[in-house]
From TrEMBL:
PANTHER family: HTH-TYPE TRANSCRIPTIONAL REGULATOR CMTR (PTHR39168:SF2), TRANSCRIPTIONAL REGULATOR-RELATED (PTHR39168). One of its GO terms (biological process) is response to cadmium ion. CDD domains: HTH_ARSR. Residues 4-97 form the HTH arsR-type domain. One of its GO terms (molecular function) is cadmium ion sensor activity. The lineage of its organism: Bacteria, Bacillati, Actinomycetota, Actinomycetes, Micromonosporales. Pfam families: HTH_5. This is Transcriptional regulator. Signal peptide: none annotated. Coiled coil: none annotated.
Length: 112
């Protein structure tokens, strides 16, 4: 059974991943289907280098996996339940605070 420290660490990693808009967009894209860096970068509207840094972060957090396919690498969520969790978070946040923005986020501070 996971310890409280393990649970807190897992939630913190998930929160850090979601806290960055680019990483959140990557997770949303991978929630729909696995993807390749070039296509993900184009779809998200960032450079491949910038995307690569974010993919490395998501791999380090244990949220995405790199799957070699010949000369290419496909990225996917490490567990399909992550896609469901993202959907649940979106539903809960939208249901609770759909018309409210985080005032501290606009000021550049951490919040929520």
């Amino acid at each position: 059974m996971p310890t409280l420290a393990t649970d807190v660490d897992a939630l913190a990693r998930f929160g850090r991943a979601l806290a960055d808009p680019i990483r959140a967009r990557v997770l949303l894209a991978l929630r729909e289907a696995p993807g390749y860096p070039a296509e993900l970068a184009e779809a998200i509207g960032v450079s491949r280098t910038r995307l690569s840094n974010h993919l490395a972060c998501l791999r380090d957090c244990g949220l995405v996996a790199a799957v070699p396919e010949g000369r290419r690498t496909r990225y996917e969520l490490t567990d399909a339940r992550l896609g469901h969790a993202i959907g649940d978070v979106l539903s809960a946040v939208i249901a609770v605070r759909h018309d409210v923005t985080c005032a501290d986020a606009a000021a550049g501070a951490d919040c929520c």
